[in-house]
Design goal:
- The protein contains one helix and twelve strands.
- It has 178 residues and is mainly beta.
- It has a single domain (19-64, 98-177), classed as Porin (Beta Barrel), CATH 2.40.160.
- The relative contact order is 0.19.
- The model is unreliable at 3-18 (pLDDT under 50).
Length: 178
């Protein structure tokens, strides 16, 4: 009976000690330091809502635009092709843009420390997944602006190649709650 009472007290203390209150909205943006091709592809924004104290549900999105790039024309052996006047023959390659979206859940277990999981669409057959753990550090604006360093395990949905490799590394985000 003492163990049940201790468990009930522990649950009550954790349920009322969160700094993240039900009904708050938040906007976050961040990136990943270590995933392949880190940069624009790994920078995303999300909108979250604290459904209950300490539990945030969020929706993320990432949109890329079509673009064209110039490439040197090469023969079967990889040699650059030259025009009659000696200039390099150039070609144009069009890269298609895309739109990815995802849904995530974050749980603040102790004060500002959280665990998070997200499933999102990607370019592969399967959904992209990630799991992260980190801390929300208040920076200003009456503690509404947070910096969030985290350790993140990324599992892409790609089947083959460099983009299919799981990564474990550091990630970051800024979040504003209102």
């Amino acid at each position: 009976m003492r163990k049940l009472t201790l468990l009930a007290v522990a649950i009550c203390l954790t349920a009322f000690s969160f700094a993240q209150n039900q009904g708050q909205w938040s906007f976050g943006a961040g990136g990943d330091f270590t995933a392949p091709g880190a940069g624009d592809d790994n920078f995303n924004a999300n909108v979250g809502y604290f459904a209950i104290d300490g539990l945030m549900l969020s929706f993320s999105f990432n949109m890329t635009m079509d673009y064209e790039s110039q490439v040197h024309a090469v023969d079967a052996d990889g040699n650059h092709l030259l025009a009659e006047d000696g200039t390099h023959i150039m070609g144009t390659v069009t890269t298609e843009g895309g739109f990815e979206w995802g849904a995530a859940m974050r749980y603040y277990a102790v004060d500002n420390m959280f665990v998070e999981a997200e499933m999102s669409t990607g370019t592969g057959e399967d959904p992209d997944l990630y799991f992260a753990g980190g801390v929300s550090l208040p920076l200003g604006f009456e503690d509404r602006l947070w910096f969030e360093p985290m350790l993140k395990l990324t599992m892409p949905g790609e089947e083959y190649g460099e983009a299919s490799q799981n990564t474990l590394g550091l990630a970051w985000a800024f979040r504003y709650t209102f």
